[in-house]
Every structure is written in structure tokens, then in C-alpha cells.
Amino acid sequence: MRATGPAQGVTVPAGDGFVIPGGLVDAHCHIGLGPGGGVDRATAMAQVRAAARAGIGLIRDCGAPTDTHWIDARIDEALSAERADGAEPAILPRIIRSGRHLARPRRYLPGFALELDSPGDLPKEVARQARAGDGWVKIVADWIDRSAGAEADIAPLWPAEVLVDAVAAAHENGARVTAHTFSRAALGPLIEAGVDCLEHATGAGPEEIAEIAARGIAVTPTLLQVDNFPAFAHQAKRYPVYAATVTALHAAHDEQVAAMHAAGVRLLPGSDAGGSLPHDLLPHELLAWRRAGLPDAEILRLATSSAREFLEPEGDGSGEVSAPVIYPRDPAEDLTALLDAFVHGEQL
Ligand SMILES: [Zn+2]
Fold first, then answer.
1. CA 29 – ligand 1 centroid, Å
2. How far is the CA of 112 from the centre of ligand 1 (A)?
3. What is the mean pLDDT of residues 48-72?
4. Rounded to the nearest whole angstrom, what is the distance from the C-alpha of residue 273 to the centroid of ligand 1?
């Protein structure tokens, strides 16, 4: 922490308001993904622009059905066109990609993931995705196993020894690993395998939280996505065990997030936009973190400098483009200011 001046990545005064240099970070969303799977290019660009309007300057894409590297050139074009018009460019997010979600047949949302017939193929595919992505790989670690009929519950997708080889394959190819996980059963093997990050992590009890903290594993708690669990339970009438599981996970989640923060787990901001959720949701997700008792300034630190430091350990903490997303009040003092942003003089 610098002795004078604002900390990098948090707010600075600008004219009549405040800016967040480099913008907010959305460490879990999906660009190029809609409710039925992949979307066309115009829709993907609309998703990027929606994220920009929400003040997001850096995205970690947590799995997309198609390669969206073409977007990087479009973002550069859009920024230089705005500069040529004499306008200060609206912030457009930079995207760090995790390649494709890796799952097994009938063990994730249809149309989203690359589905591996044989679980033993995971390490090989992880290596391939690591080489094709931007430094991250996304593994779907658990999902409902409907083959169990009325007893169906959330269950792990991969044997523990396969996860060990898969995480090693990612690391050997220069990528870190994050994993989708809802259940407690999936967490131990993921932690032991050496994952770098966990998405949702709703199954973590006190023992897992202590281990996650000790190993420096980051967690994206996605409170608004977990708020959908009661609806999942309602829709799962044929699967009463699963319905009870997700109901209990939802009920415990706010306190669990508070416990993770208290234990020193690095919490990452993530909207889980894409699929069913909109790409301008992140400010609302951050406001939901108040339910875990976190102060506004701490939430904003986690959603900016802390997340950048984790995602870009080699970076200098600043954004690449100027950020004329103006907040009328300092969001570090009152997080609701994130909902009142202006760009080019227009309220968003
Ligand atoms: Zn997701």
C-alpha cells in the first residue's frame, strides 16, 4: 500500500465524480455464451458492451463454447474509432480466457461444455485448452448425476487421480485451473490436486475453508447465481435429494462467504453472466456481498486491485484504457454509486 495518494485500482476523484482506474473486474462471466450455448458475433459484442457499461475493465471468461479471440481486434478497432472521433474512449474490457468448459456427457448444461467420453482424457484435453487459452483452464468438477434416478444428487465428475494429472497438465502448460463446484464431495480432491481457484464453492465447510485459505486458493462466490438455487430446487421435483441439497447450500451461503473472508480467502468478483444472466450484473453482485457483512470499501478493493493482482500478477495494477465511467459519489464509501454511473455525460 502506498503511503500517499489513492491505492491503485480503487477510486480517484475526476471532475464532479470519481473513476475507478482500469474499471471493475468480472472474474467469472462468459462472453459468447447464451441460454442455448454459443451465440453469434453481434450478440457476443453486445455482451462485451454491456459489461463495459457496468464499468468492467477486465474479464476472466470462465468458459465459452467457441474461440472468441477475434473480439480482441474488434475492441482495439472500437477504441481507436472513438479516439478518432475525439471522444475519450469508453472503457472496454480486456478478456482473459479459460478456453472451453470441460465436462462429461449429460453432466453439465447442454451446449456449453466440451464433453469428454472418457474421464481419463481430462489431462490431455486440459493441456490442449491450456495451450489455446489465455492462462486459465475451466473444469466442471460436479453436477447432478441423473443416472441415480430419484436418489440423484450433485456428484463429482472426475476421479481424484485424474484431477491430480489434469491440474499438473495445466501447470506444465503455463495455465492455472479453476473449477466449477457446488458440492462438498468435489472440494477435497480439487484442493488436493492443487487447483488455483474455485467457482461457487458452496460446499465448503470449516475444514475446507481453512485448507482453501492455507493454500491461497481464490474463490468466486457468485451470490446472485447461488440465489437461483431455490428455483433449481423447485424445478427438480423428480430429484428430491438434489432439491434438498441445493436448498441447504443456498441457505448457508452468505455465512459461508463471511467465514471465507474472515479466514483470509481471496474472494473474486464474478457475475456468472452468460448462459442465463446479463453482462451488466456485476454491480448488483457486489452489492449482494454486503449480505456477508463486508464493508463497501473492502468489497471494492476485492473487485479491483485484489482481483487484478490475482489475475495479472505480472501487471502494474492499472488499466490499459482510460475509464470515463464516472460515478457521482465515491463507490468506496457507498457502493450503490456503482448503479449511478455516467459515460460521455449519459447516465447508464
Ligand atoms: Zn459460469
1. 6
2. 10
3. 92
4. 7
Query: What pLDDT digit, counting tens, does each position of 294-316 carry?
Result: 999 999 999 999 999 999 988 76
* pLDDT tens for each residue of 203-259: 999 999 999 999 999 999 999 999 999 999 999 999 999 999 999 999 999 999 999
Distances (CA, A) of 15 to 181, 188, 324, 343: 43, 50, 11, 13
Name which CATH class applies to 13-62+64-97+282-287+296-348.
alpha beta
Domain 98-271 architecture: Alpha-Beta Barrel (3.20)
The residues facing 139 across adjacent strands are 102, 179
Residue 346 binned pLDDT confidence (cut-offs 50, 70, 90): low
Q: How far is the CA of 277 from the centre of ligand 1 (A)?
A: 9
CA of 211 to the centre of ligand 1 (A): 23
Cell of 252: 448457508
pLDDT for res 317: 53
C-alpha 272 – ligand 1 centre gap (Å)? 5
Distance from the alpha carbon of residue 289 to the mean position of ligand 1, in angstroms:
18
Output the CA 232–ligand 1 centroid distance in Å: 15
Q: Helix H segments across 155-239?
A: 160-172, 187-193, 206-214, 223-226, 229-235
Domain boundaries, the chain: 13-62+64-97+282-287+296-348, 98-271
